[in-house]
Amino acid sequence: MRDSLRRLLQDHPPSDATEAEHQRRMLELVDIDASPFARHHFDPGHFTASAFVLSPDSTKLLLILHGKLGLWLQPGGHIDPDDDDVHAAARREVAEETGISKLAAVSLGGSLLLDLDIHPIPPNPKKGEPKHEHFDVRILLRAHDWEFAAGSDAADARWVALEEVEDSGTDDSVLRAVRRIRRELTP
Question: Is the pLDDT of residue 70 over 90?
């Protein structure tokens, strides 16, 4: 997994200076001695995987209401030891959080990744987890149909028109990825 992720990161063209810095830090993390994919690796953090899921006609994005954060976000989460790669982890998370398993990969500008994001995670004393960061590797997928069902970490889920995502109650990292999607998909 380490080698395939390194290649994906190296081949990905960042969309702005923020994403370029995330890419630089991810390339450092992928080469540490410990496992950067293990959810117990806290210094500085570990890789996660998520997916932006387009509707079958590519006009809408499937967002989930994150139960703990109260924000509308893309499906995603931790990489499990039995995931083959970050794409498999992201697809598994989509299936767990939305019930969608029939998905097609979408490449923008020749990259197999959509976006790179690093965000802080507060400490969780109940689980014995210190403050750390999630190094989120994000991909773009298209659903084969419109059916979904919110599950596991998703308090709710809904299709949101691409031009309405900024009014949906999400965060800046999602908006950065959506700007890229709109820029690349709009003729």
Answer: no
